Structure of Ribulose-phosphate 3-epimerase:
Amino acid sequence: MKPIIAPSILSADFGYLAKDIEMVNRSEAEWVHIDIMDGVFVPNISFGFPVLKYVAKLSKKPLDVHLMIVNPEKFIPEVKALGAHTMNVHYEACPHLHRVVQQIREAGMQPAVTINPATPVALLQDIIQDVYMVLIMSVNPGFGGQKFIEHSVEKVRELRALIERTGSKALIEVDGGVNLETGARLVEAGADALVAGNAVFGAQEPEEMIRQLHKL
């Protein structure tokens, strides 16, 4: 099965955002990945809901919304209003994760959980059957363009084994340092979806890069 490709608009040219979203609309990408940062949970701020409403209006692809923020459950209505397909929250930011996952599902979105590079896969044991997807961060969240953390490939294998052992239907997504080389190894290890930022928007031909990632 071909991997799902989700270009991250955090790496898009914000001076020509409409043009970059139109490119993604034309491409073979399945989703648009949106990173929301608050400057508290991660040391950076990305964009707020006024910009996201503009993105949602232009995008013809489902929105994969990744909240790198504290108290993400407070924004379930706003994310829902965007028409988001997936709402992704961090394990580390949700002391009451099971409740938040249920609230996301009740709002009509697919619940997903992200784990940071130092968070063990084993901690997902008690939530893995309740989520649509798990996102493994293969860089430290907060900045684009970081070097891929090699241990992430093994984490994908561990997560695939956990999913198979528990009978979960969860997808595995990976975000950070994804390119043709790392993407191939992640897919081989069991990844279902790849978030690509610089690899796509920094390419000479972004649509062709998406096509090549899709072939992995």
About this structure: The two ends are 9 Å apart (CA to CA). The chain is about 35% helix and 20% strand. The mean pLDDT is 95.
